[in-house]
Amino acid sequence: MKLSDFDYFLPKELIAAFPPEDRPSAKLLRVARKTGEVAHDVFRSIVDLLKPGDVLVLNNTKVLPARLFGRKETGGLVELLLLKNSPNGNPRCWEALVRPNRRVKKNASLVFGSNGMTFEANVLDESRPDSGKRLIEFKEDSIQEKLEKFGHIPLPPYIDRPDTPIDRELYQTVFAQKPGAVASPTAGLHFDGALLQTLNAKGIEIVFVTLHVSYGTFQPVVAEDLSRHRMEEEEFEIAEDAANKINRALDENRRVIACGTTSVRTLESAVNPETGRIKQQTGKTSLFIYPPYSFKVVQGLITNFHLPKSTLLLLVAAFLEEGGRNKLFQLYEEAIRCHYRFYSYGDAMLIL
Question: Model's pTM, two decimal places?
């Protein structure tokens, strides 16, 4: 199976620039995992589609306002997308993507802020042709406070508009708790507080895990041979209580339903392949799921509609099991025909 097998054409008007005002009013494409049979619904009907005893796994990562706009000391405009704290242990150092990358030299001084309130950073290394990542050192410790004041939400590039203040709310799940992501686990955007309460009252057990979504999740796959693609590592955490609840469900043959590809990758990264059980842990994962793949934990998936040739699209194809690629594109053709909205702010699919 090749990368070119996972390309498709999407009319530009179907790319959602904004989410619906009422989060659970998004469209929902219901899919039978074994057969690919479909039905059309709205997202809030998920209450009727899940069963008491089901475990719904949500990713509670929180998106950082990690995009900064500033200037070089020479006056030229510069943009940073902060990815993560550097592994060198210095809290002032961050790995970042820089634009325009090649014009920003090692030791360049960058200035950010507005209205007389500024802060500075130095570029510590030259451009890396293999990744485009740079190492940035800020001149003060309170960078998180500066991001809250001056940072922008890093909307994906296919949302063809500048971010607005309301995106700080719209591009965040209502259950976001642990800061660290540079992109939202967007399947979770369809839930609001009332829907979560209704699910809980019905006896659906809600469990939270954390995977800090990085730039690597959305990094284009360029290798035609899928086995040659390497995912960037992402940090994840599964607490003891979450692991116990998931394992109890598995022991009792209750369904574990993951919301979003990030939750899937967290669970499938944390499972012991010999016992088939999850254990409490904090770690990093570079798991790349593509067909064929044998899922060990996840039995249901809530997901959005993904970009062509993306790692997320390949994961969904793998989850559809035998004939997954053909099933996937039949579903996408149906979604396009019925004017579903695509990508981060778009509509959803439930595969059971």
Answer: 0.94
